[in-house]
Amino acid sequence: MMDQSVSRIGGGVFAVTTAGRRERVYVAGAGSQRWAWWNGQLFHSTGARPDQPRRPAAAVASGAATQSLTAPMPATVARVLVAAGDHVESGQTVVLLEAMKMELPVRALGQGTVKTVHCRPGDLVAADQELVEIA
Fold first, then answer.
1. To pair with 88 at 20 to 30 A between CA atoms, which of 69, 111, 122, 133?
2. Distance CA 113, CA 86 (A)
3. In CATH, what number is assigned to the domain containing residue 83?
4. Distances in Å between the alpha carbon of 56 and those of 46, 63, 67?
């Protein structure tokens, strides 16, 4: 049996110990929307069960739906890399945020055209605040 433990260090900061290794994990969000930053990676949990239906990825990839890109956690806008009218590709970074001394890229979910940009460098944004709309 592996020795595992999780202990809270402070607001949104946890120490996770497994197999003798201790790691720091940062968690933000509320309700069913949680974001975790660990080992240079950002993870998102919606609280949805794997057997629950999801919005088809084809709708986003085909540009059939408007994408509303939001801040994953409270942060400061470091850079806005697009403007209204710009064409974006799937996975392209459109906004770069800074939170907890880390850079967090916000990427397009599919290709499309930037409809509206709702932020600018230096803005403080809340979790789930809309940053960019892509049609």
1. 122
2. 6
3. 2.40.50.100
4. 16, 12, 13
